[in-house]
Write a structure and sequence with these properties.
By secondary structure, this protein is α+β, with helices and mostly antiparallel strands. Helices cover 42% and strands 19% of the residues.
Length: 136
């Protein structure tokens, strides 16, 4: 049984060809690459797969519900997807290119915990996105 089949079955999803191909597209993307539904669709079309754009959206929604992917809305509601990571990370989004850069900083994480504790709270989960421009 392939890795993709195992992941889908573990998430309670039947291993259909469209699901397998979409999962493969996400897994084969460059490290730190966040793909839109349209980019996944184009990738599949370029490789000769007969999967409609509506199917891509439907499968991504199923993957999100099953915890396989995380959806981010970085650019004015433009959704991009990444395989759910094993470890926490934050994001920087370049305003000029749209490039998404993942990063983790222990000092930032510690300070966020301290601020929450000072206010009488404990962080359960969080997401931080920095919108950046290149220094010239």
């Amino acid at each position: 049984m392939s890795k993709e089949n195992t992941e889908l079955k573990k998430a309670g999803l039947k291993a259909t060809l469209p699901r397998i191909r979409i999962l493969e597209a996400l897994e084969s993307s460059d490290h730190n690459r966040h793909l839109s539904a349209e980019e996944i669709y184009k990738q599949l079309m370029n490789s000769g797969e007969d999967v409609g754009l509506a199917t891509v959206y439907r499968v991504l929604t199923q993957f999100e519900s099953a915890g396989i992917v995380i959806r981010h809305n970085f650019e004015e509601g433009h959704a991009v997807y990444e395989i759910t990571p094993d470890d926490h990370h934050d994001h920087m989004v370049c305003l000029e290119t749209g490039k998404v850069i993942e990063f983790h900083d222990d000092l930032i994480e510690k300070r966020q915990d301290e601020i929450a504790a000072e206010k009488g709270y404990q962080i359960v989960d969080h997401s931080m996105v920095l919108y950046v421009k290149p220094t010239k």
